[in-house]
Amino acid sequence: MIISKLISGGQSGCDQAAWNAAIDLLFPYGGWVPKGRKYENGRIPDYYIVKESSSSRYEPRTELNVQDSDVTLVFTRGEPSTGSKLTIEYAEVHNKPYLHIDLLRYSKEDAIKQVQEFLTDIDKQDLIVNVAGQRESKAKGIQLEVRAIITEVLKWNNG
To answer: Helix 82-93 and helix 58-68: axis angle, to 10°?
Structure first.
């Protein structure tokens, strides 16, 4: 197993955490975002290199990212709600493996280990990994927390 690319839908929090970790490590990233580059704080900055879906709604880009990936990681604090729950539903509908990490139940180190074990069990090279989860406004600080986890996973991947 080798991760070849990270994708996400561009929302604040977990989505942008993945992109930022990838950018920090010069790692390939991308994903579908709503038309107009919409997210909760306005417009996704142009320095993120991503594709716009034909809809300004969040649901189509969520499904496109699940479809375009091999696996999905969903990070939350507590039970998945709205968008995270929808991501898991799309993963199930499209028969894609996913891992939900509840950051209230796992330390950073344990979360990293869970992701590593999950990815190691996937029998495929050149994995495209979709990262999803809560918005920053719903889980203050989750963006930095997930960025640190994804950074360590990418370093392990490249090691």
So the answer is: 40
Calpha distance 60→79 (Å, rounded): 22
Query: What is the C-alpha separation between 108 and 113, in angstroms, rounded?
Result: 9
For the segment(s) 3-158, the CATH number from 3.40.50.1000, 3.10.20.30, 3.40.50.450, 2.40.50.140 is 3.40.50.450
pTM: 0.97
Nearest CA among 89, 14, 5 for reference residue 49: 5
Q: Per-residue pLDDT tens for 54-77? A: 999 999 999 999 999 999 999 999
The answer, yes or no, to whether residue 123 has pLDDT greater than 90, is no
